[in-house]
Each structure stands twice: as C-alpha cells, then as structure tokens.
Amino acid sequence: MPKHSRRLLRGLGLLCVLALGATACGSGDDDSDQKAVGAADIQAALKKGGSVTVWAWEPTLKQVAADFEKKYPKVDIDLVNAGTNNDQYKALQNAISAKKGVPDVAQIEYYALGQYALTKDVTDLKAYGAGKLAGSYSPGPWNSVKSGDGIYGLPMDSGPMALFYNKKVFDKHKIAVPTTWDEYVAAARKLHKADPKAYITSDVGDAGLATSLLWQAGSHPYKVDGTKVGIDFTDAGAKQYTDTWQKLIDEKLLMPVVGWSDDWYKGLGDGTIATLPIGAWMPANFVSGVKDGSGDWRVAPLPQWTEGADTSSENGGSSLALPELGKNKELAYAFVEYANSGEGVQTRIENGAFPATTKDLNSEAFQNTEFPYFGGQKANKVFAESAENVPTDWKYLPYQVYANSIFNDTVGKAYVSGTKLSQGLADWQEASLQYGSEQGFTIDK
Fold first, then answer.
1. Interatomic CA distance for residues 413 and 417, integer angstroms
2. Is the model's pTM score more than 0.85?
3. pLDDT tens digits, one per residue of 339-385
4. Burial class of residue 3, CB neighbours in 10 A (0-12, 13-18, 19+)
5. Are residues 267 and 208 in the same domain?
6. Where is the signal peptide (predicted)?
7. Distance (Å, rounded) from C-alpha 40 to C-alpha 223?
C-alpha cells in the first residue's frame, strides 16, 4: 500500500481510533450513560441563547443560519467552511485530537460518518429525541446515520441516483434512452460509432460511482459488526457490475477525463459526454456549471441490472452531526433539527438542495416543480421514485474515507492498463483489509 495513502489516514487521525478500538479511543461516554434531553431543556437553551459553531461547506445553510438567528435572536450561528469533505475531515480530526477548536456541529457525508460513530467522536442523538424522526426520512439516508442502536446525525440531503442524458444528442443519433445496463452498453457503442468524439459518459475510476452501482446491483461487499469487518467483491451483484463496466472499458467507450475538471464540464456542455449516472443533487451543478447544455438535458430512471426491476441506490449526501467535544449541545441539536427536519428544509429546497425528508419528497409542490434547464421536465418525480427504491441493507466500512483514497491505486489500474476490473476490486479488497488489520480491526474471512 502506498506510503502517501498511509500518511493520509494518519493525517485524518484514525490511527489511534482503529488500533485501540472503539471503546478505548472514543472521546465520549458510553451511550448507556447518556441522559435524555427533553424539549423543555432545548427550549430553555434557546431562550437563554449562546453561540453555535457549524462547520459545513453546503451553501444553502447560509440562509438557514440567518433564518434561525432571526427566529431565536439570542442564538448566534457561526457558519465556517473548513474545507470540502476530506479537507474538513482532516481539520476536524486534528481538532478532536488536540481537544481544541472542535465545532459544535459538523457536516459529515454518509460514507464517512461510520468512523466517527465507531469512535464515539460524534454524539448519539437518541438522547435528544432523534428517534422520533425515524419515519421522517427516506430509507437510504436514515439507514446511513444509524450505527448499531445509535443515531449519529440527522440526514441533511440525499442522492438517489438517476440517469441524466443529453436528449439532443440521443435524438440526433436516434438512440433510445436505456432502461437496462445492457442497453446502456449498446447505446454507448452506437453513439461512439456515429461520433468518435462522443462518449456515453466519462469515468477514469470513481469510488463513489463504483460503490453506488454495486449497491444497486445487490452486492453486499462490506460486512461490519463493530470492529469486525469483512470485504467480498465476488458476489453476484459485483460480477454483474464488473462484467458490464469491463465492456465499456475494453471498448474505450468511456471518455477519459476526471469528473469536475474543466474538460468534464466542457464535455457535458458540448454533448461529447452524453449521460451522467449520478445523485439527485446534480441539477444545481448543471445550471451553474453547464450553461451551454440548458434545454438539451433530461432525467430518466437509472438503468437496471435486471429488465423490469426498479432498484436504485444513493450517490453522495451528508448529515449534520454533533462532535462529542463540541459545546452547547442543546443549541446545536436545535439547529440541526431545524435545518434538517424543520423549517430549514424548505429554505434549502428553494435554494437548490435535494431533501431527505419524505414529506417534502412526496409533496405535490416538490414533485410538480418544473426545471427550465431540463426543458420544463418535472424531474423531481424521477428523483422521488428513485429515493423510494433504494435498498436499505448497504453498509460502508468504518474507514471508508481511507478505502476510497486508495481506489485509484487499485481499481483505477483497470482504466489505464490490462488489469481487469474484477482484479482491481480484488486488489482494493486486499489493500483495504490489510489496512484494517494493521489498525486493529478483526478481519472476518
């Protein structure tokens, strides 16, 4: 395993976490010692006032924070952008290790939350009444904030997957919108033959896309039980994914550009990248970053691994959590609940966020929203249906941040050499298990 990758994880502060195990390294008390915090306690804290430091990069929270301060004049929300995902996680873990400068609230993506829950570095929100919100969220996000019997964050948004496709390009080449992944491969061949500069999508190795497609295919690669972990990328779902995606790689049907790069945005704008299988949070990025494609793009359900199925998966999404060393817990929880299940949800939707709350997902106003960018299509209907069809039995590793950081060192080789995708997954599995063993996890073989 590359030395730079090991240094990355040590920089994230997980060495102590994993080597000593959850009970030895955690900064908080055992869940059983938590005392229930009632609504009266939270209202008293709001009346008294104080400050809450929130670390988050999600832009719609700016208006939510302003609205919260207006509603509760004695509360000051200090919204800090400490970096996006890995940059913030590094800063957060450094603050936790130093026991200094820890925020009261932190945005933590679903795939990363498990490591903080395992070490008790985030607070179990059951004591604050979070359990009552169980029925308020779509299954994927709610399952992602739970660990064992605990609830370690409230879902802020969700990323049920859909297929964004360039209708103008599809119409030009008389390509039908694919409903299965086999049809997707056939569409890729037809498109690239008609226009060698055009590709069905871009991919040079993306851990998030790979795990989302494995999830949809019914693969269950990660087995997690506390500090006992297992990984197996050889089940039927994984085989479906590797067999199909290998065809796209072998036949050079994937544009070799990195996502979110200038070339990627250019390809989406000029039609040389014809589809994007990604989360429902993507529309705002099309509007702001792919202006030339306005009116050309549409949204369809994610292609299926089995004809006639309707299974989806999640891609991205974040929670708001309370670091255990943070202060003003009652105020912090009040803000998180306001932002993620209260009045703040509608504010965030109006500013382009995609909700995790079923009430909003199923509302007539939400589902009937027309998207001018997508030719007036009511795209939220597609997204909401996708959210309902996400299997809830998916698990991430408690060190998924690290595992994802070595994806391109292992699976990525399949995109640039003769290594098969299945072998790349096997290498990723071995490297991830080796790291887990080095850090004190019990490996389930």
1. 6
2. yes
3. 999 999 999 999 889 999 999 999 999 999 999 999 999 999 999 99
4. exposed
5. yes
6. 1-24
7. 40
